[in-house]
Amino acid sequence: MRSxxxxxxxxxxxxxxxxxxxxxxxxVDESIHVLVVDDSSPDxxxxxxxxxxxxxxxxxxxxxxxxxxxxxAYVHAFKYAIDEEFxxxxxxxxxxxxxxxxxxxxxxxxxxYDVVIGSRYIRDGGTRNWNIWRRLLSRFGNLYAxxxxxxxxxxxSAGYIGYRTxxxxxxxxxxxxxxxxxxxxxxxxxxxxxxxxxxxxxxxFTERTRGRSKISRSILVEALWVIWRIKLRVPSLARxxxxxx
Length: 245
Description:
The chain has helices spanning 15-26, 45-53, 70-83, 103-109, 132-149, 165-170, 180-193, 217-244, and strands spanning 5-11, 32-38, 59-63, 88-91, 115-119, 126-128, 161-164, 198-202, 204-206. It is α/β, with parallel strands linked by helices.
């Protein structure tokens, strides 16, 4: 188990899920801390986290003034993790679709790899409670992205990701401007282009049972063209970083 682990959870209107999720995460291991990045949720998500902070250790909270996108939330959190000297950062959804039971496997694999992805699309991975259209759209999006980026990752749109902190220090976070699924793909592509070792571990992704999904068809479709911007932009920037180090 790596010594200082921070699980990062961006939230917007997750009051009914966040308390249970935080408790499950903290129960995995005493080395794990949780950072919630909330976009001033009108349902009181931040207030729920503040109440937990008064009774549970290892909880951190950043409240942004307004909803400003998944990518910006993660960049904000990653900078916080670097400043606070955590050596492992794991991104998770806040709706219980990512089961904390997989945290130990991700952390263990980070002893050997630089980035570990909780993957739905390798052996023993999968999804639960998705309709046929959601399955097809996700499968097609990942196949399309793989054909463009060609970095040997099956689940490029996965959001359950473990990073060694040195990866996030090398990636120029202010230059990662994609959002949603595109942001998740771009982060993996940056890591690969900078020469870091990526690995996948199987997870079962369970569709949320409370609240509304933040992912829409338009976000998925947008990722299909944004992936080309990533493909054309990132390799040259990564090469400059490698040559200057």
